[in-house]
Each structure stands twice: as structure tokens, then as C-alpha cells.
Write a structure and sequence with these properties.
381 residues, mainly alpha, two-stranded antiparallel sheet, 2 strands, globular, disordered N terminus
Length: 381
């Protein structure tokens, strides 16, 4: 599964639209998940109660796979000091933005209650750990070795899984033994739900283990980067083989430990990574394969709103939080903007009104990121 190293590299400025399209689709899915999973409706948009995988469970770890895809392009050339500075800056900014995201609308930077863990922090830590593994492998072999990256990711997951099984915690089967590390390092007032849940889906150890998603994505990105323009069939074969291996390993691991996002069981990580890479293959075939100028124009016309989301992911993520909070807290008369939209303006009844409200949020975000995309303005960390 090692992609050939002697294939001419695409230019530094070349991009594969499939990577941005996949990221954009995930972000659009993210916009619809917090507003539409209400009552007994749209259960697939809610997180699984404990074991299992729903669409909502799948979106964020699949996004970590796209982080790995992007990382493969960031590290495409021999690493220089500028690359190390950018990786360090990215980690720091993601952690800072993540803490600010937690503070907005909740503790408002009350340091005694401010939660330090979160989604952006996990993206930063997992990406940094994944990059460190890649750079260490280059130091050992002088180049990227796909087999080594996949091995490190898979072995790391199963070692992490052994800890879930062997380290005691209470209640047995519904807790994370690694959560005690977060409580010891961060204290209860700075962790997820103030330590009341007994597990932590955003913890320090879990963030490190999440580097597996990044490494699987990085491995697929290596293939796209090296031969994606010259040999599309081989690109699909190699990524498809990796996806199939992840899915098969995940199915086998499910007999040992059921898929569980909150604990990041090995079966969950492998099944999500494998299925995400299947989607990557499909989008690559639809978006980044030939067809002539006419087909390219049609593709650009269809995909540009999605790519606009994908190219400005940080803006989408932060702006969604601002819009949701503003809609719930800013009142017109005696009711919030959100309530007035759902009850008075949107011409659909429950439960579809929640989807309609999410669509309004998505359109407002598109107005911003679409304008930025047309002007080629992107917030890149």
C-alpha cells in the first residue's frame, strides 16, 4: 500500500477539490445536527445514548480524517522551520479558539468555571500528535512510510483500548479510566460537564488517541497527493484497500469492544475511519476525475457552496455558535429570534421546522463564507 515516491508531484498551489468538498459536507452536516435532533424525531442526528454510531457521532471524527488529508499537503515538501512554526501556531490557536468558544455564552472567561477541553482543542492536539508521528517516521526512514503510519495508528488504538478494558473505573462499562487523568491535570471545574458524567469525550488521552483518525487520513492524502492526478484507478485502489482494511478490523474489534464514541473504542475509530475513506473515494471519483471543460463547469457550479464551507472551516464552526447563541438570547418583544422564526415565520410545522431553522443558519453562514470564497479569502491556521 506504499504509494510510489518517484511520481512527479503536483505544483505547490495545486488543490484537490474532493478534500475541500468532503470537509464542506461534514460542516454542513454539523450545522444541521444541534438544531434538528429534537424529541423522538431525527434520532440519527443525535449522539448514540452509549454504544453505537449515529450520523452525529460520525461527523466529528470524520472531520479528523480530513485534518489528516490536509496535513499530508501541508507536509508535502521536506519539513522546514516555517512548517514547524506553522504547526506550533496552529496548535496554540486551536486551543485558544476552543477555550474562547467554550467561554462564549457560558462562563464568559470566568476562569474558575471555564472548560478547557473541547472540539477545537482535540483537533489541535490530534493533529499535532499525528504530525509528530509523521516527522518522526521521516527522521527514521528519510520519507513517509504509509505502512508505518497505519501500524502506529492501529497499534495505538488497541493499546488505548486495552487501557479501557484493564484499568478499573466505576461504574464498570460506562466510564473512562482515562478521565481521572483529566481530573488530576485540569481539575473538575475545567473538564467536560465538571466531571459529573464519569467519562470525558474531550479528554487529554482521548485527544492523543484521536491522532489515529489523522494518521489514516494522512495515509490516504499521501496517495492522492502523489498519484491522484496521474493514476486515478490506482488512487482508488489504494485508498479503497485502506478503507476496507479499517472496516474489516473495526468489525472484528466490535466483537471485543462495541463501537462507542464517548470512550473512543478501537472498533468505533476503525469503522468511522474506514467509512470516511470510502466517502473520500466516492467524492474523489465524482470531483477530481476528468470529463472535459463542460463537465468541470457543471461540477464547479454544483460544488462551490460546499467548497466555500470547506475552505473556511474555522469561520463556519465559530460563526454557527454565534448565530445559535444570538438566536436563543436576543429577543424581539417577549420571544427570542429563534422562537419567532420557528413559530411565526418558517412555513412548516414540527418537526420539520427545526430542519428549516437549521437551513436558515446554513444560508446565513453561506452568505459569509461564499462571499469570502469568491474573493479567495480564507482563514488558514
Amino acid at each position: 500500500m506504499q504509494a510510489p515516491a518517484d511520481v512527479p508531484q503536483p505544483s505547490r498551489r495545486a488543490r484537490f477539490a474532493s478534500v475541500d468538498t468532503f470537509r464542506g459536507l461534514l460542516l454542513i452536516g454539523m450545522v444541521f445536527t444541534p438544531s434538528t435532533a429534537v424529541g423522538d424525531h431525527f434520532a440519527f442526528l443525535r449522539h448514540a445514548e452509549w454504544d453505537g454510531i449515529t450520523m452525529n457521532d460520525w461527523i466529528f471524527p470524520a472531520f479528523l480524517v480530513t485534518s489528516g488529508l490536509s496535513l499530508s499537503f501541508l507536509l508535502r515538501n521536506p519539513s522546514k522551520s516555517a512548517t514547524y512554526r506553522r504547526l506550533t501556531r496552529r496548535l496554540i490557536l486551536l486551543v485558544v479558539l476552543g477555550i474562547a468558544y467554550n467561554a462564549y455564552g457560558t462562563s464568559w472567561f470566568d476562569i474558575t468555571e471555564l472548560r478547557f477541553t473541547g472540539v477545537l482543542q482535540m483537533i489541535g492536539i490530534a493533529g499535532a500528535v499525528g504530525a509528530a508521528v509523521v516527522l518522526a517516521s521521516r527522521a527514521m526512514f528519510g520519507e513517509d512510510k504509509m505502512w508505518l503510519l497505519i501500524t502506529v495508528a492501529t497499534v495505538g488504538l488497541f493499546v488505548y483500548g486495552l487501557g479501557l478494558e484493564l484499568i478499573a473505573c466505576d461504574p464498570i462499562g460506562r466510564c473512562s479510566p482515562y478521565f481521572e487523568i483529566d481530573r488530576a491535570v485540569l481539575t473538575d471545574s475545567h473538564v467536560y460537564r465538571a466531571g459529573a458524567a464519569g467519562w470525558d469525550p474531550e479528554g487529554l488521552v482521548l485527544s492523543i488517541a484521536s491522532a489515529a483518525f489523522v494518521l489514516y487520513g494522512y495515509s490516504a492524502g499521501m496517495v492522492i497527493r502523489r498519484i491522484g492526478q496521474s493514476d486515478r484507478r490506482e488512487t482508488v485502489r489504494q485508498i479503497g484497500t485502506l478503507a476496507g482494511a479499517c472496516l474489516a478490523a473495526g468489525a472484528i474489534a466490535s466483537a471485543w469492544m462495541l463501537p462507542n464514541k464517548r470512550l473512543l473504542t478501537p472498533s468505533f475509530a476503525l469503522l468511522v475511519s474506514g467509512s470516511a475513506l470510502v466517502v473520500v473515494c466516492g467524492i474523489y471519483l465524482l470531483i477530481d476525475t476528468g470529463g472535459g471543460p463542460a463537465i468541470d463547469r457543471i461540477r464547479r457550479g454544483i460544488t462551490w457552496p460546499i467548497i466555500a464551507f470547506g475552505r473556511n472551516a474555522i469561520i463556519v464552526y465559530l460563526f454557527e455558535r454565534v448565530l445559535l447563541h444570538a438566536g436563543r438570547t436576543i429577543k424581539i418583544g417577549d420571544r427570542s429570534i429563534e422562537t419567532r422564526l420557528m413559530e411565526d415565520i418558517l412555513p412548516v410545522g414540527a418537526p420539520a421546522v427545526h430542519e428549516a431553522y437549521a437551513a436558515v443558519i446554513a444560508c446565513v453562514i453561506l452568505l459569509v463564507v461564499g462571499t469570502l470564497h469568491r474573493r479567495r479569502l480564507y482563514l488558514a491556521l
